Amino acid sequence: MLNNIICSLIASGIWAMIVVIFSPQIIKNVKKIMVSLMDSGSVYVFSSYSDKEFIKDLKYELKHTKNLRICTSRGSFLMDSLYRECLNKKDIPIWILLPNTRDNKWIKIRTSEVNASGDGYTEKAFIGAIESNIEFLHACKGSIKIKLYDCIHIGRIVLTDRVAYFCPYLANTYGEDVPVYKYAVNSIKYNWIMRLFQEMWSVASVV
To answer: Would the pTM count as exceeding 0.90?
Structure first.
């Protein structure tokens, strides 16, 4: 009798384990947890664009990248020595998205946001900076393609074949003062940023 009870308890335990292990809802929840653990966010979060650790990290990635995609607002940082070497390499294909200055609806919005942060940038100066940066890029010797987007200025994106850096533009906050998020290639967020860039590129205007 006792043996039968023990066997019944063991069988019930095994059945319970099978139900738990193979339950669709349990499996779904486990997958969610796994995805969360594997792609919980950024590889690293830098305090700002002027963070010394970020500059060191970006310098390394730019040195080793096989291609480069950049989406930004004014884009004045492109003139920094950090980018100059990469922008003059002929063996690296580079795609750059800058705001379209012909219809400056979005530029007006971003200018008002930057002004609210105390930067004091005028709309005219904003447009002038974009046009100056386009001239600068045309003078570079690298294999650079430039297009102009006509949509909200969401943030600064730097995409290599290994990582993605994303610096979100927040209302009332200057772009240099917000954190920079770094994502590894093939992570969900890297793939999302890559898709966003490609979609913006496909509808952007040629310079």
So the answer is: no
